[in-house]
Each structure stands twice: as C-alpha cells, then as structure tokens.
Amino acid sequence: MQHEYVMRFTTLLFTAGWLTLTIQPAAVASTYQIGRAEQQDQPHSTAGIISATILDESGEPMMGVTVQVSGSKTVYITDAKGYFEFKTTKPSETIRLSFIGYKAKSITLQAGKSQRIALDPDSETLTDVVITGFTKKDKKSFTGSQTTVKAKELLSMGTKNLLESLEAFVPGLQIVQQNNLGSDPNARPDLNLRGRATFSGAANLPLFVVDGAIVDVNYIYDMDMNTIESVTVLKDASASALYGAKAAAGVIVITTKPIEQGAIRLNYSGTLRLTTPDLSGYHLLNPEQKLRYEELAGVYTGSDPAEQYRKDLERDAVVRMIRSGVNTDWLSKPLRMGVSHSHSLSAEGGDQFVRYGLTLRYGNEQGVMIQSGRERVSGSFKLSYNRPNRIFLSNNLTVNRVSSDEPNYGSFSNFSRMNPYLSPYGTDGQLVKSFRGDRVNNPLYEAKLGSYNQSQNIDLLNTSTLQAWVGDFRVDGDFSFTIRSGSGRKFRSPLSNDFRGDALDQRGEMVENQSKGFNYMGKLMVSYNRTFLDKLYVTSMAGANIESSSSDASTYTSRGFYSDNLGHPNFALGYRSGARPSGSDNYSTAAGFFLNGNAIYDNRYSLDFVFRYEGSSKFGKNQRFAPFWSLGGGWNIHNESFFKGNKNIQLLKLRASLGYLGNMSFEPYQAYTTYDYNKNINYLVGAGAVPRGIGNPDLKWERTLNQNVGLDLTLFKSRWDLTFDAYRKLTDNLLLDVTKAPSIGVVTAKQNVGEVVNSGLEFSTRVVPIQNKDLQWTLALNYSYNRNKVKKISNALKALNDSYAKDTVLNRSTTPLPLYEEGQSLTALKVVPSAGIDPATGKEIYIKRDGSYTFDYDSNDRIVFGDTSPWAYGTLSSYLFYKGFSLNASFGYSLGAVVYNQTLASRVEGADPQYNADERVLNDRWKKPGDVAKYKDIANRESPYQSSRFVQKEYYLTLRSLSLAYETEAAWVKKLHLRRARFELLSNDLFYLSTVKRERGLDYPFARSIELSARLSF
User: Fold this and answer.
1) 580: which residues sit within 8 A by CB, 6+ positions away?
2) What's residue 798's pLDDT?
C-alpha cells in the first residue's frame, strides 16, 4: 500500500510539474563583424538567398553562431532564432559554422533552399564556455571569475562524491579538514569558497544550482556523478550577481547531461570499490610498554600498606595476562574492509521534436567501521518538446532515497584507548561487559548488542522549463519544487553499560526524529539582443523570481525497554523523567527583480552590468528589501591590431569586477519576537510563556563588497594556459548576538554589528609538453591563498571571549575554542606561550606578556601563534594519454597552517594511565629531576593547559588519486553490440605525508580505497 501511494504521488507531481510554466535563459553570442539582411524573420525560399537555422544537440536554436563564407572575409552571426541569411549571385555557397563548445562544421548550401543544421557539442572545448545557470557565455566575453570542470575530469578523481572531486580542480575551493570524522560515509564535508566571510558555518557554504534549480548541499553530496556534464564555479560579483542575496559565498552551477537525438540508446556505469582503514597515524603502546608506563605513572603505588597490597594484586594480574600472550589489537576490532558498489543505467532517445531520457541508480557504500554505511537509490526522467523558433518545453523529475547506518558502539576512540593486555572475551568465551571493577567498559560488548542508529531521507526535485519566441523577444521561465522527508531512530539497548545502576524501567532508550520540507521557486524573464554599428553587440534581460521554503521537524525520546531485541517505540514504558518533545517549524518567502545588460564591442571590449532588488521575510519589516549589483569589464588584448599575426597567443584577457552580494542563510524568525512555554511557570490558566528571542524590525541583510581583478592567458595553440585572480571581500552588517539588559527577558538579541574582510590570490596553469597523434601529456597546477581579518564584533562576542578565558575546563580542552578579536583572523590560533618543561620539577614554564617566566597559567597571556588556514594550498596533477590508455595522478598539498596537536595534548601529556596512549608518553615525558623533556611529569594525569608546546606548523602532501583507464570503440566492442567501452582502475588517498605526527580519524578513521569501474554505451 505504501509503495502504491508513493507511485501515485510521484505520478501526480510529475504531471503537475509538466504543466507548470518555467524558464531557461538566453545564450549570449560573441561579437563579430556582422552583415545580415534587414529582414529578421525567416523568409520563404527565394533564389539568390542563402539561409539556414542552426540548432544545438537538443534541437534548440543557437544564437551567436559564427557563419564564415568560403572565399570571403564577410562573417555573419545567427539571431535569437538561430537564423541567418545573406544574398548571393552564385547557385550555392560553402559556409563554415563555429561556436564555442561545439564542433565546427563546413557545409554547402543551395540558394533558395533554407535548411536546418545541427551542431554537435565538443567536450574538448567545453571549458571555453561559461554556464552561469542563466545563460551560456563565450569565455572571451565573460568578465567574471570562474572555473569550469568537465565530467571526465571529475570522474578521474573517483566516484565517492562530487564535492571531494571538485576541490582538486577549483582554486579557492577548500574542504575543511575534520580530523574527528575521518572517512565516515555519512559525514558531509564542509567547504568554503574564498575563505570564511561570516561567523556562522552554514552561511559560508556556496549556493548550489542543478539545471537551474537551487538545491542544498546534501543533495549534491548524494548526487550521481555519472549524470553530470560539467560544473561551473562562479566566484566573484560579476559571475554570480544574478543570484543576488544568495551569492556572497559563491555559486556552484551543475549541468547534467543533455538528451541526444536518435534511436534509443543505453548507457551503463558500474563501480566496485574496496576501502581499507588508514591507521598510519596511530602509534600505541604494546603490553610491555603499557605496563611500564603504568608503573612510572604510579598506578601501582598505594598510599598505605592495605592499598599497596591491592595495587600489587592488580599488577600481578596484568603481568599474568601479558605472560600468557594477550596482545589484543583493539584497533582492528570495529574495522573491516568496506566493499562498496554502485550502478547507473540510462536510456535515452527521440527525434527532432520529442526527446526522453530515463536514469536509474543504485549505490551501497560500506564504511570501514562495522555497521556504518550509506545506501543511495535514485531515478530521474527527462522529457522535452521542441518546435524550433516557436516553443521549447522540458521537464526533469528526480527522486532520491538515502539510507544511512551509524555504528551502535560509538566512537572509534573507545577502541583506540583500550589496553592491549586486556582480552574482550572471558575464560568462558563470552564477551566481558567491563574491566577493572566496572571502571572500563568493553566497547566490543556494546557492538554486539541490539542497539542501532539508522536514518532515511527522500528527496523529490522537479524542474520544468519553457522558452517562447515572440518577435525579436524571447520569454524564458522555469519553476522547480522540492519535497523532502526524513526519519531516524537511535536505539540503545537496556543491556548497555550506559544504564548501569538505573532502575529497570529506565533502561534502554530510543530517540526518534521526523522531518519534512517543501520548497518552490520560479523565475520569469524576457531577453532582447541587437547589434549596433556592425561591431557593438548588446544583450539585455529583465526578470523576476519568487520562492518559498517550509520545514517541520520533531524529536522525542522514549525510555524503558526490557528486551535487547525489541527496539521499537511500541515496547517503551514511557519517557525520561521531566523530558518533553522538541521540534521546529520554519517558513520563509522571498522575491526579487533583476536586470542584466551586456555589451561587446569588436570582440575586444566587454562590459557587464547586473542590478537585483530582493526581499525576504527573514529580515526586519523596515529592511525587507535590499539592492545588489555588479559591474564588470574585460579587455581582449589578443584581438587588438598590434597583436594581429601573432600565432602564439590565442587568448590574453584582462578583467575586473566590483559588486555587492548578499547572504540569507539564516534562521527565518531571527527578526521576530518569539516565545516559548515554560512548564516551571504555572498560572491558574496554564503554563507561562517567556521570551525566546527579541525582534528587531531593523535587522537587515549581510552584504559582501566583492572586488576582483584577473588575467586569462592561452599560448602556443592551447599548449599552455594560465589564469590568475586577486580578490578582496568585505562583509558588513554581520548578524551577531548583542547583550541586552536583564529586564528585557533575554540575554542577547541579533543585530547587524560585525565586519570581516577576506583577501587572497588564486592561480592555475596547464601545460601540454607532449602532444601528437597518439600521445598527449598534460601537467596542471593550482594554488590558492586566503587571509581574513575581523574588523568589528559585538559586545556579546567580546563577553563570550572573556568567559572562555575564565573557564578552567575550556582552557584545558584539547581543541582551543576560537577567540574572535578585532584586527585578527577568524581562524587565528591563540594560546599561552611556553618556555618548556622545568628540568628540576617537571612543571611547565609559561611566558607572560611582559616576558617574565611563571609556573602559573594565566589565559590573559594568550597570543596568536599563527593561522589554522595555510598560506598555500592546491593540487598538482598529471594526465597522460596514449592510444586510448590514460594514466592520471593528482597530488594535494597544503603549506604553513598551524594545528593544535590533540594527540600530544591528550595521548602523550594529559594521558590517563588507565587507558592506552601514544608511544611518546614513555620517551618524551619528564621522569626525574634533571631530565630535559618536552612534556610534563609522567605521573601528572591532569589535562594540560592550552600552550604553545602543542602548536605545530603543518606541511602535507597527499596522493589524492591515481588511475589507469582504457577507452575504445574498436571492432571487438562493436561485436559485443556496444558503441563504446571504458574501463578504469583508480585509487584514492594512497598516502598522506605530514610534518605533524598525530592520530588521524579520532571518532572515525581515515581510509584508502581502490575501485574498478566500467562504462558501457550500447
């Protein structure tokens, strides 16, 4: 019944989406010398007239196609309907058609006979086209900063997820390292584009657009990479200003593969991946070393004879276990070789008017920790109808279901800290619940219980588009909607050690959550293009958009389960004492209006202007709407007269842009006064309501003033190209908490008081040292640099900094909390300087601000010891092709970031001798007067204060991917009824070399993988 309901619901949504009006933006042509007939509409066939309509691979008219007449210097350009015509005195003319991103075509046309001609896309020149999500632009006329990555390049990095593959090709795009999460398949990576511009982590995420529809980062993380045609990353104001209030953190535009005309064709892609844990960062004590550490730390030293007797018995028991040969490899207990596989099958076809495509995908990714995994099932259906020069309709429906499983036994650190002389099994062969009188739990016992942690999410995305030609105008529109639903259950068995000592009716717990959401957005625009004075080509566009977003979520916790095997809410006895359900209900709307003008003169000088006026319900009623704009200019120096005849320079372009962009990735009710019920406040009529947040009618948008200058250079017949960008981003009106008077009822409220500035450099280059008929070798390098500075913060943030300084627990944490101060970086690392360990006492010597030495820690002595952001990071890649074979390697590097070494602070110094530790705990800690050591007295079990002794500068190099592939269309392939076959062997993260010696993957280990893939076209 449930499946039948889903099928009916999906069919209904598809029908509704198909009937919905939508839009796709017009393409912009390059400017050439133009000679066109005055009549723009397609005439009846007439002798002496050469005419044709040029179509793309989807049957859509192509505006801006260059038409070169053989034997003549005259060049024509197609209009908005893809049409051109010119007069001739000959019975026929041979013409050459060319357009960036498409294969050039020469054809002979008969006078008086108009034809329709289709151009084929050329994947080798795809990077010469910029897809902005509104239009396609020739890179030579584009004034913004962008990077375009082709599908083949993305797949050369592996098929795990798009975000990790994309990082290798885009300067300025950085995945934030999360040492705790390692290679957890359910941990979505966080990424920044050109640094952090705001204090909120979510607000630093770029905007994601798929075929014109805005989606969230989770959709991208689970996207089928085999369906992607290209990805364009828009970085500056000129490139992304049409997205206005959402574009401050950049825009990532994803284009899926178009439907090709012809008889039905099948394509299959399959991948088998083997993943093994990378434990190279773990250097733990063996049984003998661990016993020695315990002895030196005083574990077996008693304060009186009776206690000493008990300690001696404990030590004797440990010695017996060691002598019996117990040496448990605890690191391997929760781990496995992950076996993952994914399959994608597509069918497509159609004629000149109607085309269709269906794609089905299944993927099952096993993590290296037992019980962890992620299952992906998706399907998409594309349908389009095209009447050239009249109307174009399309609809794309995609449904994704993602199921995830997390380990029921908690963190990997529960195993890495276990003593090697302890066996998880007792003498009876059964798992032991705990060790040392219940002081140490057995994590393997927890893993064998009936506990589980599972979740499932379903997303439905439908995008409909319409194009209609009305005279010289083109009307474009699109409408998309997304339906989301999610659920999750986390059950902890009543047999778990977590409930030791609890009453029977309070053992066992289940946390259940439900969520749902619905978003829609649409835009409508009109474009008009015209050529003036034969050399000035002007495009104009005006439009409007609307959008709405709603979500609902709830969570409750039930308690009291008598059976380990009956983990269902139906078997719960009740709720935790005093607990209440929790949830959220969010709703927001937005609308905007925009204008875009572009002018290109003689293919040398280009100018772009965008103005957008946008409003959102998320902000105060006095500041709902705000203007955003950009201005960009470009100079194609290679087209100047003084460069004519220079065959070595194909592209030399200077560009600059300036503009204001916005950010609206915030909670929907932050500008409103909200209340919550408090059960502890009871009146005769019921519970009292207390303020939850104080409204601010003047709360306005965060704005980013984005400035960019760039250089594009292509030399030696495209054997060498280079792109350089320098940028500055000033974000003001940052939303921060401001301290309020106690009489108001809340401690803080939101106001626009913060400022942050980012500045940086980006560089990428590609060289082809060898290129002939059979062999090509390409080298590529990209480099990024970013630094930020806090210009202004709120009084509440300053007070928070002060509270951190006074908190002893936080000052002993293994992860220093960020301290935001004006004039310093968002990612600055501040700790107290240290002079090392006193050889006489084994205590740490701190350096005060006046330069004097002291044994007393004072958090007010903190100073900056560097930045956790590197001064250089990027990728070095090599691509070698020979007769259908390809060998690719990609290395990632990072230079100069400072890290606070958690391993030194918690597993060397600060180690608890009750658990295992890093081997340096024996060799590098102070033991007796006169020792010159790096770390405190080995008998000291206190967590150390945050000092410079644990700060290290990191330089690392990693082999991100190494692949060997073979692609062929040989005769033996045809005999198997295939058009094309490609086979690839690829590995990820083969090594990681770093100047910092630390444990990597604390809660979930990092992993290395090797995969075999096949892509077959029938």
Assistant:
1) 679
2) 77
| 198, 317, 529, 700, 978 from 791: Cα distances, Å | 12, 61, 44, 19, 61
pLDDT for 87: 86
3-state SS class at 498? helix
Burial classification of residue 772, based on how many CB atoms lie within 10 Å of its CB (0-12 exposed, 13-18 middle, 19 or more buried): exposed
Residue 863 near residue 833 (C-beta atoms within 8 A): yes
Answer for the pair 703, 662: CB distance below 8 angstroms, yes or no: yes
Query: Across all residues in the chain, what is the average pLDDT?
Result: 86
Over its C-alpha atoms, the chain yields an Rg (Å, rounded) of: 32
Alpha-carbon distance of 435 to 453, in angstroms, equals 26
Task: Report the pLDDT value the prediction gives residue 671, as an integer from 0 to 100.
Answer: 78
pLDDT of residue 115: 86
Distance CA 768, CA 779 (A): 6
Residues of the chain with pLDDT under 50: 1-46, 124-126
Query: Counting every residue, how long is the chain?
Result: 1018
Buried residues in 665-685 as b, exposed as e (16+ CB within 10 A): bbbbbbbbeeeeeeeeeeeee
Residue 587: its H or E element = strand 582-601
User: Residue 188 and residue 220: Cα distance in Å, rounded?
Assistant: 10
Who's near 372: CB < 8 A, 6+ residues apart? 184, 185, 186, 366, 405, 406, 407, 1004
DSSP β-bridge partners for residue 831: 863
- Residue 613 in tokens: 């006026």
Q: Please, are residues 655 and 632 in contact by the beta-carbon 8 Å criterion?
A: yes
Name residue 714's beta-bridge partners. 651, 721
Token pair of 823, please?
Answer: 């004039």
Which tokens is 932 given?
Answer: 């010159």
- Residue 532 is predicted with a pLDDT of 85
Burial class (CB in 10 A: 0-12, 13-18, 19+), 930: exposed
Integer Cα distance of 139 and 130 in angstroms: 6
| Interatomic CA distance for residues 40 and 135, integer angstroms | 22
β-bridge pairing 925-926 and 935-937: parallel
